[in-house]
Input
Amino acid sequence: MHPGVQFSVLGPVRLHRQGVEAGAGQPRQCAVLASLLLRAGRPVSLSKLVEDVWGDEAPASAVGSVRTYVYRLRQALGQQCDSSVRLIDGGYVLRIPPDALDLNRFKETAARARQARSGGDLSSAAGLLAEGLAMWRGVALAGVPGPFADQQRSVLGELRLACAEEQLACQVEREQYAEAAAELSALLVEHPLRERVCGLLMTALYGAGRQSEALTIYHTTSHLLRQRLGVSPSPELQQVHEAILSGRLRLPHTAARPHSARRTPPLHAPAQLPAALPSLVGRDREQEQVERLVDEAGASSAAVICTVGGLAGVGKTAFATTVAHRLADRFPDGQLFADLQGAGPQATPRDPAHVLGDFLHAWGVGPRDMPETAQARGLMFRGLLADRRVLVVLDNARNTDQLTHLLPGGHGSMALVTSRMQLHALVAGYQALPLTLMPLSQADARSFLARRLGPARTAAEPHAVDRIIDLAGQLPLALANVAARAAYRPQLRLASLADEYQAPGLRALDVFASDEDPALDVRASLARSYRLLDPETAALFRDLRACPDPMFAASQVAKLTGRPEPGVRQALSRLARAHLVSEVGPGRYSWNRLVAAYAREQARPADDPASGQGVDGR
Output
C-alpha cells in the first residue's frame, strides 16, 4: 500500500494523508474527485466534469463551482504531495500510484483469487476473496451525486456481487454446503432474479441433502423471472434443475461417491392412466367444459383443477380416465394416476405421503432421495412439475385435506379430481371447476345399452329396454351390470331378463350384485358412500324411506320423521354433499330409486339403535 495519500471509493469517498483522514469535501466535490479517480489518470475536461456532476441540469455557475472544487482538492492533497490535480492537455488529471486506490487493490486481490482458484487452490482463493470483500465499507460512492457516480455505482456493485458469488462458489466447491447455503439464501433475498446465486444455492442445498428445498428455490425463481421479466430461466439454471431431478448433478470431489448417481432418470414421461372407455355416452356437455377449461388456461399462472362429483356408480372414474386420455396429447410431459381410496373398501383412505412417493418414484426419485413427510414430498413434487405440462388424475378423493400436497402448482399442468363428496374447499380455495355427473337421461341410457348389446337387439324390444333402464335407476354402473349379463346370454330376450329382475322375493339391489368384482356391485358401492356419513345424517337417510315419492321437501321430511326442521335441513344438505340426494330447488330434494332401495335395506328393526347393528346396517 502506498504510504502517502490513500483514496477510497468502495463506500463513501474518503482520502487519507499519512494515515490521517483529510476531508474530501461536500458531495459535489466528492463527485469531482470520483470522476478524476475512476478515469485512471486520463485528462478530464472542465465540461466533462460539469456533465459528470450535474448532467443536463447544470446551472450557469457550474463551471466556477468545478474550479472551486479542484482548488479545494489541491489544498486537501497538499502542495508537496505526489498525488495532486494538474491541468494537462486542456483537462484535469489526478495521477496516483495504483495501490493508493482501494478499488485497484480490490481488483488486484480478486485477480489473484481467480488465479488461485484456477490452479485448484480453493483455500487461498476463498481467503483472497474474503480479503477483497472486506475492503468494502458499504455502497460504492455512497452519497455522491451525479450521473457519472450513478453509473459507476452500478458497475462497482456488479463487481462486488461477482466477488461474493465467487467466494460462495469456492465454499460450495470446498463442500461447505450448509455455510454456503445460509449466505446464498440471504444473497438471493437481496437479488431474487440473480440466476447464478440461485444455481449456487440449489447446488449447496442439494449437497447438504436438502433436495426438495433446492427444487422449491428453482420454482420460486422461475416464477419471479416470468412474472417480473417475462423470461424463462437460463439454459444453465435449467440444466442445474434437470440434473437435480435426475440425480446427476456433479458435486465437487464427489465423482466417485455412490450417492452421486443414486437415482436413475425416467426413460420416458410417466403414462399411468388406466384403460379408457371406447366412448362416453351422455357426457358431451361435461367433456366440453373440461376441454374449454384447458383451452382457456393459457393466460393463467396456476395449474388447472377440475372436480368430478356424483352419486356412487354414476361413472366418475370412467369419465375422468376417458377424458384424461383424450387430453393426454396436451400434457406431453406425463400423466399420473392415483386411486386415493377415499370411499374404498378399506376404512382408511390412502396417505398422501405414499401417493407422492409413487409419483416421485415414477420420475426417478430413489429411496435415498425421498423426503420423509408429505409436506416435503409435496414441495419436491411441485418443483419437479414446474415448467412441465403434466396431467394428474386423483380418483376417489375423501376430502380437500387429502389433496393439498398432491396438486401441481405450476402453470401448464392440470389436476382432474373425482370424489363422492362435494369438495367445497377445493372450489373456494383453488378456483376449481366443479362438475356433477347425473344418472343418464332415458335417451342416453338407451344409447348406453345399444352400444353394449348392439342396436338391433335393443331396437327389437324397446319396451323391455325401458323397463331395464327404470329398474337400473338410469345409473351407468347398474346398466353396465345388466349389459354384461345380457351379453353372455345373446339368445335371451330382454323382456325375459327384465322379468327375472322383477321376480318375487328379489330385492331391488340383488340383481345388481357382483360376486366377481365388488367394484361392479351397486349395493357395495352405495355402502361405501353410506359409511362416510355421520350417525345423525345416516339416521335421517334411513328415515327417508318413509317418503312416498322420489321428490320431497325438507318440511315434509320433518313432519314424517318427527324431527325439527332446521336439523332436517342440515342433514339433507350433508346428504346432498355426499350425492346421496340431489337438491332440485330451495329446500326440495330427490333421490335415485336404487339409493331409496338401499335406504330401505338399512332400516333397523323398529329403527332401534340398540339392535346391535352397525352404521352400515350389517
Observations:
- Confidence is low (pLDDT under 50) at residues 254-267, 606-618.
- DSSP finds 25 helices and 14 strands in the chain.
